[in-house]
Amino acid sequence: MRKPIVTIAAMLIAVSACAPGSNNPKPTQKPPSAVQTDVAKAGPVTLTVWDQEVLGGQNEQMQKLNAAFHAKYPNVTIKRVSRSFSDLEKTLRLALSGDNPPDVVEANQGYGIMAALVKAGALVPLDPYDKVYGFRKRFPAGVSQLNSVTGDGKTIGSGNLYGVSMTGEAVGIYYNTDKLAKLGIQPPTSFGQFEQDLALAKSKGETPIYFANLEKFPAIHELGVLLGQTADKGALRNLVFGQGGAWTDPPVVQAVQKLADWAKNGYLPRTANAGKYNDSPSAFAKGDGVFLIGGPWFAADLQKKMGDKVRFMLPPPPQAGQAQPSTLGGPGLPLAITAKSKHPDVAAAYLNFMTSPQAMDVVVQTGGLPSAKPASATPSTPVGRDVFQAYRTASDKDLLVPYLDYATTTFLDTLGGALQEVIAGRKTPQQGMAVAQKDYSGFLAKK
Amino acid sequence: MSARQYSLPGREKSGRSAPGRKERARPPGEPRRIGYLYVLPAFVVYALFLLWPLVHGAYLSLFHWDGLTLGTWAGLGNYTHAFADPSLRGSFWHAFVLLFFYAVLPCCIAFVLVSVMSRSRPRGMTFFRTVLFLPQVVAMVAVAVAWQWIYSDHGPVNGTLRFFGLGGLTRGWLGDFGWALPSVGLIGTWVEIGLAMVLFLAGVQKIPVELYEAARIDGAGAVREFFAVTLPGLRRELAVALTLTTVAALRNFDLIYLTTSGGPGDATKVPAYEVYNRAFNTGEVGLACAIGITIAIIVFVLTAGITRVVEGRP
After folding, report:
1. For residue B32, is it within any domain?
2. Residue B168 belongs to a domain with what CATH number?
3. Does the keyword section mention Transmembrane helix (chain B) (predicted)?
4. Quick one: how far is CA A353 from the chain centroid?
5. Residue A168 is inside which H or E element, if any?
6. pTM
7. % pLDDT > 70, chain A
């Protein structure tokens, strides 16, 4: 009976010798002087671009800009492949490990996609192109920071630039102007005032904040707004990027405590953990909730349903007149160049074109929130202008803190799950954040 | 090895093939080796799309691999991790809880329905049969969206409770830490009843009416009749129903993904969801494969056990 054991052992040795995957060499950076900026000289080129801009205005935005690029450089044909966000992110790994990957892809920030692709040597560092086109100068610092990864792919938030984003996001507070009028209040100018308004709304039988948290991640937005009140933005950035601090630090626990208090006081719907996030705009438009915390992604839908009755503001400072607190936000999905692209210089010119002030005008005209300053366009609706102005303010004053779930690959699940337990009153803020910290320290130790 | 050892088992049973005779002189219907050729096309497809992925999955489960860079040898590390990690261990426990809701409960309910139907043929039987089988036909996505509404704050479940003055019991069922798992489980029960019932109904029609008549003449009531006649007559159907529903319970992914995404917290996490989550969201392909292979082994053991116990095979 010796033989099977020997066979198995031999098989195991054979198997362990050929591991899956491959060790691609990291792409080298060429000197900026070697960058060919004259696209017309490149001859006939087909640029394959993968994007996820499939929804209404975003789709129109990509179509218009791609057509404009082709009109400017007739020798370049853009072959566009657009898929929904989740489809794109799930297939990206497979596509980029193949032999014939697209030239330009939208690769989501964070350890899950962008850093993993950098680690595998699948993306080109944009630093030489930045020196030629000045990408970093276009965007607020927080935006470029999130599109940066160290060359080894181990740390996000610093190192080389790997992507440029066409759109931006800043989380803030939507409010129903009808409800405010009925309660006899103005939009709050301080966080203290905001909490008084919540108490007033509760006492008048209203839902103070509409909040749907079935998917776990939404609570991270509420927490981000609360962290703006208790924690320093530098400390928060360091925490998310794994450069110091802990999720059990007092300012963080204080913010989580506030969230627990909101749930306990009935400022959030009792069934928050069972509500579907994507139903938020329709529930809020129907009058469920005086306030709604969220990003620009709600604006178009709310505008359609509520017209001028919905407005948006950044979270107010603790006391009226104080400096604006930080909030969550950053760049939309970034365009990145793949290492196997045969025309990286043309791709870089495309990236430059897609983030130019003129392109930002198109983003505004198609209802998007541009990541950089547009040449002249301004949004046409009140809530659109609010969101636009809020992002400009957040950019100019450098208020954006990255989404907290960038911290680890599993943080959306662990932090989001812990916050669900805190909201349900099953865990104290300390216990909840201890769970998050355990995931965080484990991830940093493995890195 | 001699050619004889390769022959199919049916051969030895046939006493007519006298020793020493030539191969050609076999009786009609005797299996021949050419039979393998007939199954070849199906086998190639099966091997290519099922066996090979299974083997490749088992191979990947032995590595730490993020799907992109060179993997490192992990041995059985991914398997031990799958059981050491409390959240993953919890997901296996949830799968066993769902086993009750997906397999045991539907079979029990289907038995009640079938014994009622077999004793008295109610009017519009075809209609009821169709209605009860309908959940099997409806796409899981539609099922999930419909039940999300049923369980929602303003849905019919809470509405009914409020109507009877039980407003204190209302809750967001899918977002409640204690109730989310049973709530998802009951959706599974609703879906699987139809399958079990159709199988049992077909089986009941096979049972000779004389047996029922004899039982009734002997004075057996409905319960006695069920245990003495119906249940023994439905052994095989029960085994099939349990096997199918058990597999459905253990590989349950779509319903969880669509209704709760494993939440609240970790309350409804199941292994099949974790396979997807680890492979595509967190980039732990090796661990995902290890969980997948573990599910396959558990399914294999359970279904083998079910056939033995229920069908009474050795």
Report:
1. no
2. 1.10.3720.10
3. yes
4. 22
5. strand A168-170
6. 0.84
7. 95
